[in-house]
Amino acid sequence: MINWMDIVASVLGLACVVLAGRNSKYNFWVGYLYTAALFLLFWNKNLYASLLLQPVSLAINVLGHYRWTHPREGEASAQDSKKLKVSRLSPAAAIICVAGTLVVAGLWGWTLDRLFPADPHPYLDSVVTALILLAQLLSSLKKWECWIVWLLVNITQIILHISVGNIFMPIVCGLYLVNGLWSLWTWIKLYKKDA
Questions:
Q1: Rounded to whole angstroms, how far apart are CA atoms 67 and 55?
Q2: Which of 140, 157, 129 is nearest to 86 (CA)?
Q3: How far apart are CA 183 and CA 177, in angstroms?
Q4: Lowest mean pLDDT segment, chosen from 40-49, 67-76, 101-110
Q5: CA–CA separation, 16 vs 154, rounded Å?
Q6: pLDDT in tens, 122-178
Q7: Dihedral angle, C-alpha 128, 132, 134, 138, nearest 10 °
Q8: What is the pLDDT of residues 52-64, one digit of tens each?
Q9: Whole-structure pTM value
Q10: Which residues contact 23 (CB under 8 A, 6 or more apart)?
C-alpha cells in the first residue's frame, strides 16, 4: 500500500534541499511544509522520537530563514547585500561541532535504547538525528561545512534504511547524496566569490 504522506514528505524534502543547494531563500518556505508533513507522517506511524524533533527542526528553519535574509554588518554577500554570504567554520568551532554531535548522539542513543527497546539500531538512529540537527544548524548559518555534514547524513541514512528493509528511502537518500555533492561544489564557489 502506498503511503501518500511518505511521498509528499519525500518530494518536499528533495525540493527543500535542492533549493538550499542553489542558494535560494525559498527553501525555507518549502521547509515549513516539509516539517509539517514529517510531523503528520511520524504521528501516523507512531514514531514519537522522530516526531519530537520536528519542533526543533522548525525552530532551526525559522532561524535560518531570518539569518539568510537579514545578514549582519560584514556578513552580506558581495552579489546581493540582502543575502547572507556563505562562510566557513573556524577550526575551534568545527571541533566544538564534532564534539557536541558525538555527545548528543551518545546521549540520544542511550535514551532511545531505554525508552524504545524495539528500535533495532538506537545508536545509529541517534547519530543520524544528531547529524541532521548539526547540518540544519550549519545550513541556517550558511556555513559551507553543512554540506559535508549532509553527505554524512545521507550515507548514514542509506545504511540505516537498508538495515531495516526500507526500499524507497535509500533511493531518496541517494538523490540527497547527489544533491549534496553538487551543493558542496556550488557553495565553495559562492564562498570564494565573497572571500
A1: 18
A2: 140
A3: 10
A4: 40-49
A5: 15
A6: 888 888 889 999 999 999 999 999 999 999 999 998 887 788 777 777 888 899 999
A7: 150
A8: 789 999 999 999 9
A9: 0.88
A10: 83, 86, 186, 187, 190
C-alpha cell recorded at residue 5: 504522506
Residue-wise pLDDT tens digits, 82-135: 999 999 999 999 999 999 999 999 998 899 888 877 777 888 888 888 999 999
What cell was used for 95? 571541533
CA distance 35 to 2: 20
Q: Which amino acid is at 192?
A: K
Residue among 169, 171, 177 nearest 153 (CA): 177
Is the Cβ–Cβ distance between 98 and 88 less than 8 Å?
no
Domain coordinates in residue numbering, the chain: 4-78+92-194
Question: Three-class SS of residue 25?
Answer: coil
Class of residue 153 by CB neighbours under 10 A (exposed 0-12, middle 13-18, buried 19+): buried
> What DSSP state is assigned to residue 86?
P
For the stretch 65-75, what's the b/e string if a residue is b when 16 or more beta carbons lie within 10 angstroms of its beta carbon? Answer: bebbeebeeee
